[in-house]
What we know:
- This protein is of the alpha/beta class.
- Helices cover about 55% and strands about 10% of the residues.
- It has 21 helices and 11 strands.
- α5 links the parallel β7 and β8.
- It is found in: Cytoplasm.
Amino acid sequence: MNHPGKSKDYVSQDEGSSFSDPQTHGAFHSHFIESVQPLIELIDSLRMIALDKEIDLPSIAVVGDQSSGKSSVLEALSGVPLPRGSGIVTRCPLELKLRKLKKGPWTGTITYRDYNETFHDALMVDNLVREAQNKLAGNTVGICDELISLEISSTDVCDLTLIDLPGITRVPVHGQPDDIGDQIKNLILKYIAKSETIILAVVPCNVDIATTEALRMAQDTDPDGHRTLAILTKPDLIDRGAETDVLNIVHGKVIPLSKGFIIVRCRGQSDINNKIPLSKAMEMEMSFFKNHRYFSSLLNGKASTRCLADNLTKELVDHIKKSLPYLTEQIQTKLLNVQRELKNYEQGPPVKEELMGPFLSDIIMEFTDQIYEMSRTGHLRDKNVHALLRPVFKKWDIYLRGTEVSFTARVNEMIDKYNEMHRGRELLTFSDFCEFECVIKDHVAALQEPAMKTLKHVREIVQNVFREICYLSFDQYPLLRYTVSKMINDIESKQEAKVEKRIKEFIDMEKLVFTQDKVLQQKLDDSDITQKNGMDSSDENFYDDDDTIFNSKGCALLDSRNLVPDKLVLYYEIIYQRLTDYVPMLIILFMLKDAAKTLRHQMLELRNGADVVQLLNEDSERGRRRADLKKRLERLTQAQELISNRL
């Protein structure tokens, strides 16, 4: 008998159940209980400690258009009455946790914000959920993204956790904001866009499946269909003759989904009006499929609420198993990062003002030691400044080497048109060295701009490295951080001006067109120019007695206009060698080494006359951030312990 005053539609779970008939009792996952519950409870425990704020957890999100039969499916799985009605009924995400008991009374627990209530009457679910939604989303028709958790423990449910989301709507009703449709879609996307979420898309059989917004959103976020399981509802309402189309959908011939389709027949509004209980509705469902001309063949794993429950549990458990290694790794990584970050927040300034000066000196010394070490070795933690600078200098070297081609072409062009364009008062067949010198000067002058670009690029790299050390060292002290950052910028600006001046001077020096005779002689000896002119480089008649430099006779033989390009290219190699090394060495010396030394000296002088209290004033967000990090540390540590204990 039912308790007095209770609706006959639902009965208390300790006396009767929606799944209490002999055919269905214990059917849901009896062979999975031992292995399934720990995994599902583990994820629920992780969600309970709010780990989902840190890491996306494996879950099943239920999505459906309004009036798609979503509530009926969830009722059939849970055995309890959920809120029904027109318009938006689910106004907050509802986490539905079903826990199968080996024995014991039916128990429900609803939790949201700081509220928690345990009850033992299934008929209370509807009112408790509505009350929770009103508190979170208001007594109107708005929605809210705060989660309501409803746990149901019973001998007649499967082990499963689902998150029911508001039904998709297109047209706002009276009292709803104009963008209610977008609000709902954004809330749904917040869940189904996560790669850890299995999407349970509920679609009526009696509509064009391709036009349903639920399946479209699932396809948008899961285009390959690897995370989507579709539920077809209301098979008793399809038009006669459309059965074959539904079969094609179930068999994946219309929209392929790797997790497939399952068709169910839950209680409709007429069944509810006729007060047909869920237990009877399940019997009617099995009878419907067994006796259906077209759909009876689907009972081998693609039809019925029982099949759906089994499949959902298997999918969720498999999903959790696959996710656990990555989940464990993510927790460990985040835990280490939080611990590392918290160290900076744990070290706050002394409360007593007389201790602030020594404390400031300590953190300044620690900062300058890092700057010195980085400038000396190039290494700091996982940073290698030379690894950052080397590609810049290599680019400068490649540019210099590449200009040799254009230089050679320019000299050859000059030789070809010498008599017409460059010859002055010299006699025919004679050449003026000044003309060739101008080619070198112009070419060298053009190297100044790329050299300056190299300088500016290096300044940016070094300054960023210095600033990174500054931000890490003084993250919690905004004024000190700003002061040191400005100091770094000023020093780098002054050093850049010095290097600019030196580069210009060096470019001007290269315009002098000079090298020691022995240097050029070595280039000539290593080249094939002498062979081109029929000279024997071993003939002593071409050299002075006291060294290996060509004498007048040797020089005369090489004084031929057709040899000028080759000889100038040899000289350009000398220019290249000087510039490719000198510019980077100059930049490293001033922008890195000297800048670090100057910064170190200025930092050590910073305390003199400084307002120590103001410099050590923490960011206004400092306390909040420290508290947040401690909560995260506690949460991640708990999660790590939960996984270790449960597995």
